[in-house]
Amino acid sequence: MDFVTLGSTGITVNKNGFGALPIQRISESEAGFLLQKAFKNGIEFFDTARGYTDSEKKIGLSLSGVREKIYIATKAPAKEARAFWEDLETSLEMLKTDYIDIYQFHSPPFCPKPGDGSGLYEAMLEAKSKGKIKHIGITNHRLDIALEAMSSGLYETVQYPVSYLSGPNELDFVRQCAERGIGVLAMKALSGGLITDSAAAYAFLLQFENVIPIWGVQRDSELEEFISYHDAPPVLDDRARRVIERDVKELSGEFCRGCGYCLPCPAKITIPISARMSLLMKRAPESLYLSDESRESMKRIEDCIDCGHCKEHCPYGLDAPKLMRENLAEYMKGIGKG
């Protein structure tokens, strides 16, 4: 079994983090089964957020009885101090706990610091002094903000998209975090579903001593896959390298990571799916893209009004309308109507 120490936090856990965003889509009983099974099979780190509807509540209901044996990371979407305290108290109540191991600012448009006028970092420090949180973290999809957080010396962990599709600047960021004693929580370790070989993804991330991948888990089969790596960790062998080389070649350049910051769309287009459908068609079962729902979703691209909302909010600077129209053309060809 592989372990990771998250920098200066001293938190040492199995190198499998349970990403609890997907459990908001399933029932309490289904979520409870997955959460308890994960714990019983050695997973100790659970990542959630105030913004993931009832995800925190499901963790509280299922794991409060073993609270001292697990680590919980959650996130506050607050942009000012008063909302910060409301978020924190709600999270504590939902999680059925009196402390949070890692409390993170949830993808803010700036890097909170003391004296910046928002009062956010000061609130974090006060919460820590009161014992309500143990460690201070931040999440972001923007590399410039992640780098600023790393350089500031104010954060013990940074959550950022890390996978074998990450560019050299992003991987250099991970290495710099290790040098500074900062733990990295790797979200999008499967790049929003574009990476279909979890063994290669796991093996790649094993290279980084300060990184814990946060796998989004919604199904028992997914959980079983990651649990199986405890006793037989995948290695970065020739097979894995071939998979990575193929995917990097196919997915290099501009592509949608599926983060969802472009939403909501005024034209009700499901941008994270529509902007990468041509890639999903090569990797997902036909039932995903041949369904009536997918056809209707792709047809809505024609309703794009070029309002600029998605481009303005994309942390990767993508021209989403252009990507969607290109994907629509590929989609129509793929289903035999182009």
Strand content: 5-15%
**How many helical elements?**
15
Rg over alpha carbons: 20 Å
Number of domains: 2
- Largest sheet properties: 8 strands, parallel, barrel
Note poorly predicted spans.
Answer: none
Q: Which structural category fits the helices and strands? A: alpha/beta
The assigned CATH architecture of the largest domain is Alpha-Beta Barrel
Share of residues in helices: 40-55%
**Going by CATH, what is the homologous superfamily of the largest domain?**
NADP-dependent oxidoreductase domain
Mean pLDDT: 93
Q: What's the total number of strands?
A: 10
- State the shape: globular
Q: What's the helix-strand series? A: EEEHEHEHEHEHEHEHEHHHHHHHH
Q: What is the CATH class name of the largest domain?
A: Alpha Beta
End-to-end gap? 50 Å
Q: Kindly identify the CATH topology of the largest domain.
A: TIM Barrel
